[in-house]
Design a protein that fits this description.
With 80 residues, this protein is α+β, with helices and mostly antiparallel strands. The chain is built from one helix and five strands; from the N terminus they run E-E-H-E-E-E. The protein has one helix spanning 24-35, and strands spanning 3-9, 13-19, 40-48, 58-65, 69-72. It is globular, with a radius of gyration of 12 Å.
Length: 80
């Protein structure tokens, strides 16, 4: 199942991209690097069959907020 990065940055800039990685850890690290320097407000790394998912068909791997930084799947994150 592919990984996706959904993000919102100042500007406003909104993006939805597929992450070219094989596992959750690599996908989260890729997302952190990809967003560096973008003045990101929020971001979600998720595993899903499609770019557009519902809470029933995706697994959130990591989430970012400017105020709290990154939280990983071990933090009991759910799809929104």
């Amino acid at each position: 199942m592919p990984y996706f990065l959904d993000y919102e940055a100042e500007g406003p800039v909104i993006g939805h991209v597929q992450i070219p990685r094989e596992n959750s850890e690599e996908a989260a690290l890729y997302a952190q690097g990809a967003l560096r320097g973008l003045r990101c407000l929020t971001a979600t790394v998720r595993r899903s069959e499609t770019m557009r998912s519902t809470p029933d068909d995706c697994q959130v791997i990591a989430q970012y907020t400017r105020s709290e930084g990154w939280k990983t799947e071990n933090s009991k994150i759910t799809c929104e």
